[in-house]
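Sorry to interrupt, but I need a hand with the structure work. Please put the record directly below this note.
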Amino acid sequence: MGFLGSFLGGALGFTVGGPIGAIIGVFLGSAISSNYGEKKKKNTSQNDFKVSLLILIATVLKADGKVTKSELQETKAFLRANFGEEEALEALQMLKNILEQDYDYKSICLQINQGLNYSSKLQLLQILFKISSADTIESSELRLLQTMATLMGISMGDFQSIQAIYSQHQHFHGQVKDTRKELDLAYQILEIDKNASDEEIKKAYRRMAMKYHPDKVSTLGDEFKEIATEKFKAVKNAYELIKKEKGFA
């Protein structure tokens, strides 16, 4: 079925038309790949979603006014892992073209809110965070990601939980760990208050572990399973850290 087919298999229905259809039409008018138009006729939903995904990635890449080598490398790795070598090369050509234009990402996020299920939207947000965190996440990037999450219908709690994971990576990579900061992020990952009871902490862990279990995205391909596993491990590590700090079994 491939990456896009599998991803859309978890959707309520990703259809085009209205503002998002106009965005795709503008892109097709300046697309580098002459083959894209023919492929679009054969599989409209998948190809429209593909362009939409690339527009969101391009918007994140440009959010701080520069596109870094590390962000591009992360993007290339994602495309190769999910599209295969041939389609990844075509997607990279599309991305290069998209980076030279400004597209209405808000309409795309609203379409995703209507067309994809919640688990798929969370995975999509993680992809955007993962690309953005290839180097330091600037405040402009963070504001953009929050706007995208809101438009896609993702709760603030889930946004902050995902943000906390990548904040951990940035704060502690190659540095002496700040235990207090790490603990603060652990509470954010579990979406609970620092004054939560032992039972509330346990319930939060079970809820988050179920929400981000890799098996939930097993049909979306290895890259998505890897991203879900990353979140799942972060949830488990956060729980273990809080357990140790609270002193309960």
